[in-house]
Write a sequence for this structure.
């Protein structure tokens, strides 16, 4: 008897990868892609896995870069996106950049040629029919309005966003805690019983004035014509708040009340920047209320003016974009199924990851989970020690809820993976410097991740052989 197909909606980076993983596992797939019948504001072709903007998959070095590690894990897992990217690469130094047309054509041709793949060029303009018992929704940041409306009705209004409002995130170890201190405003205890939940960075008046000048004079990114991102009063970009008056920030996200500088209790700060823990590991901290449209280079410069953040290393910089994504930590289980309707899985950027490679990685996992389920095997998430596991952790578990709308899309970064303490001395007993320690730490994390992916893969093969 023939096997019932799994349906994948959206033939972008995530949907193409999910389709490939299912088909390679022996499961028939119908891939529904609306282009060219209906277009989006960013896509220009009818090819699958179209790259809508840059042609770069970013750094390719697994020993020193988190996205390079993700590349390496995906190659081990038979990724079509990585295989076609490697086959169509163009010179780009340490990065993997691709010939965009050759790349998308290769993905399209490989999927079209697969005997278990059927490609239907149609929009799924509402919830998929009930008799589709296993569906992967991979419709991306520009999900068509009819489907987005249906998802909204199913999940509830608070659970689907049409814009991101991203505040920068800082690696904890780069914050100078000799300047910053931990305290909640008025020492208020949260539900977790912690009166020291925030990290506070103090400013005196001169520092505040210089910071406002820098905010006002730094270059800002423009919105694209079609983006029409509305500003809500609850999440205005900080530079827009500063334009409304030099004191606005001091009465908003930078208000100094209820806080005492633990290092210099006699000095009353003129303004305070607060950071809130962003992931369960405690490695990432987001700058509260600091969503911004400043250009990325300017953000790094301006935010390093904040006392305590002079050497900040940013896991994510701020931004505001049109971007459809669901509140995954609340809605999805750890194999990406919608808790309210487990026949529906989500994959790609719509789950709250950011970037071509991350979207494809989540598509890869969704495809493998759906294949395991269809074949009557356990769908086991990848270990938390891997880049894949770090992404799944961000979207289904590791993010800490800091209020409505606090879950925001993120690229892969080392803050999502449990760290490994580097040795203090080298083989000759000499003390290692900070740079060398960071280099070793990244390599150790990479080695552990690749070994753990091998073990995970071996486990999946053993289940298949049973
Ligand atoms: C303007 C813009 C620029 C970007 N630039 C970059 C960049 O430079 N680098 C980077 O890494 N990331 C960039 N991104 C993010 C990028 O979109 C994602 O990284 C990646 O494309 C997401 O992959 P995905 O598969 O989730 O979605 P997509 O690749 O967008 O694929 C979704 C697919 O679903 C289809 N679809 C939508 N709704 C339906 C429906 N109802 N029925 C059937 N099909 C449907 C769409 O036509 C599309 O083919 C950009 C995003 C935008 C919007």
């Amino acid at each position: 008897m023939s096997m019932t197909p799994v349906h994948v909606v959206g033939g972008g980076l995530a949907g193409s990868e999910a389709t490939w993983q299912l088909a390679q596992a022996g499961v028939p797939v119908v891939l529904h892609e609306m282009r060219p019948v209906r277009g989006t504001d960013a896509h220009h072709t009818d090819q699958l896995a179209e790259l809508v903007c840059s042609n770069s998959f970013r750094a390719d070095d697994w020993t020193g870069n988190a996205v390079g590690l993700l590349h390496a894990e995906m190659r081990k897992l038979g990724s079509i996106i990585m295989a076609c990217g490697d086959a169509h690469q163009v010179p780009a130094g340490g990065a993997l950049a691709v010939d965009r047309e050759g790349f998308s054509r290769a993905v399209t041709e490989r999927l079209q040629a697969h005997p278990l793949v059927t490609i239907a060029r149609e929009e799924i303009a509402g919830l998929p029919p009930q008799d589709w018992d296993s569906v992967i929704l991979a419709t991306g940041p520009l999900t068509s309005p009819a489907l987005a409306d249906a998802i909204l009705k199913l999940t509830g209004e608070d659970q689907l966003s049409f814009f991101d409002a991203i505040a920068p995130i800082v690696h904890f170890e780069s914050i100078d805690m000799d300047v910053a201190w931990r305290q909640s405003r008025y020492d208020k205890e949260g539900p977790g019983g912690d009166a020291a939940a925030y990290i506070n960075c103090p400013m005196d008046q001169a520092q505040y004035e210089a910071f406002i000048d820098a905010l006002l004079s730094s270059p800002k990114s423009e919105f694209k014509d079609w983006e029409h991102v509305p500003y809500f009063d609850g999440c205005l970009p900080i530079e827009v708040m500063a334009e409304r008056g030099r004191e606005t920030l001091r009465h908003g996200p930078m208000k100094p009340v209820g806080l005492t500088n633990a290092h210099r209790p006699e000095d009353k700060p003129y303004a305070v920047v607060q950071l809130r823990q962003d992931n369960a590991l405690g490695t990432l901290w987001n700058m509260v209320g600091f969503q911004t449209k400043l250009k990325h280079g300017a953000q790094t410069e301006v935010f390093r003016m904040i006392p305590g953040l002079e050497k900040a290393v940013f896991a994510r910089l701020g931004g505001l974009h049109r971007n459809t994504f669901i509140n995954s930590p609340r809605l999805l289980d750890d194999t990406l199924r919608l808790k309210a309707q487990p026949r529906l899985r989500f994959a790609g950027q719509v789950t709250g990851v950011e970037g071509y490679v991350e979207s494809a990685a989540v598509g890869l996992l969704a495809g493998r989970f759906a294949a395991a389920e269809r074949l009557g095997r356990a769908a086991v998430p990848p270990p938390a020690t891997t880049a894949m596991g770090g992404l799944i952790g961000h979207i289904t578990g590791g993010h800490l809820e800091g209020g409505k709308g606090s879950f925001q899309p993120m690229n892969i970064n080392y803050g999502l993976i449990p760290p490994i303490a580097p040795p203090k001395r080298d083989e000759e007993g000499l003390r290692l410097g900070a740079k060398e320690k960071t280099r070793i730490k990244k390599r150790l994390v990479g080695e552990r991740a690749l070994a753990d992916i091998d073990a995970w893969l071996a486990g999946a093969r053993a289940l298949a052989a049973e």
The pocket of flavin-adenine dinucleotide is lined by residues 9-15, 32-35, 40, 42-43, 52-54, 123-124, 138-144, 147, 348-350, 355-356, 359 (CB under 6 Å). DSSP finds twelve helices and 16 strands in the chain. The two ends are 21 Å apart (CA to CA). The chain has two domains: 6-164+322-422+446-465, 168-316.
